[in-house]
Amino acid sequence: MGDEDSWGLIPRAKRIVLKIGSSTITHDGRLRPRKFTAIARDVAALMEDGLQIVVVSSGAIAVGAHRLGWTHVGRTVREKQAAAAVGQIGLVELYQRRFARLDRTVGQILLTRTGLEERERFLNARHTMLELLRLGVIPIVNENDTVATEEIRFGDNDNLAATIVNVVEADLLVILTDVDGLYECAPEPGEPRPPLIRTVEKITPAIEASASGSGSRFGSGGMVTKLEAAQNAARSGAATILCNGKIDGLLQKIMKGERHGTLFSPGDRLRGRKHWLTFTAKPRGQIVIDDGAVRALKERGRSLLPAGILRVRGSFEIGDSVRLVNERGEEVARGLVGYSSGDVAKLTGQATKEINRVLGYSNGDEVIHRDDLVLIGES
């Protein structure tokens, strides 16, 4: 897909996830009310044209830190959680006021990674957000920093926004930040801005090398997380535009065909369940498989049977996500297991007809069924 084709797809988008970075709506922790007004007008105008928009907003910790009189965003998880509890109220209140002036209703949704790792909760989140969109309500999504810890955090709202793209099956992810887009190399202080990369068809090592530096003092994501988000969104079949949030009316301009920022082209859609398995479900362990099993999975589209298993690493239960790695430790697939780690270890190298004899029961011939498995690199 060429540059013209990629940008030409944007005005056709019907469902958009708008990720708003801390640097766009805050300055040194202080809210920028005028920016909230401009964003609300932009979103409401597109809704008048029939578009559906989910807002993923950063800023709660930054706002809370300022209200608590800190010059930092929290040095510990507990401090960050406290700042989020204080700041989230002010953040959502301002969104509510600004959209109410335009006769629009907002709904608050707070998520954690573990809340979406369970397939049932993932689907509940999807049904809730889709219903809000059907009702004309604007979901305001943020990570639930008040209960999140380092182990369960999305870690930044860029990747949270990309996950929401999959949750609501959006066509476009727009990331508002404090830079114009992705530059050919990292800008140096006091030096002229390097050329802007307008279109990225595929994120290559060269593109990754262009992403360096970090976000603002009150933000959590840098350019690297934005590339990760663009890759994640592409696997949902969505394009991503990274652009400067200081430009008022930016969404309307983009949807009219104007080119702002950097466009990351969409990839082939990895359907909901497999996208969730690849990007959201946290793997609990590893199953090492032989080369014959690798070929069976990759070339013949088969399920994973006990005969191809060499050993088990880590602990997992029935229904958990696990990594499948070859003998060299390279990940080849992920899947949802039909047996616990202890039972899989007992089944190593066994024929399927031996399952009931070895375990005293059977959950089926497959350790991982093909329908519950996704190849790494599969589209």
In words, what does this structure look like?
By secondary structure, the protein is an alpha/beta fold. The protein folds into two domains: 3-275, Carbamate kinase (3-Layer(aba) Sandwich); 283-375, Roll (Archaeosine Trna-guanine Transglycosylase, Chain: A, domain 4), CATH 2.30.130. Helices cover 38% and strands 20% of the residues. The strands form four sheets. Strands 5-6-4-1-7-11-12-10 form an eight-stranded mixed β-sheet, sandwiched between helices. A five-stranded mixed β-sheet has the order 14-13-15-16-17, sandwiched between helices. A two-stranded antiparallel ribbon has the order 2-3. A hairpin with a 5-residue loop joins strand 15 (321-325) and strand 16. Helix 4 packs across helix 5 (77-100) and helix 8 runs parallel beside helix 10 (223-234).
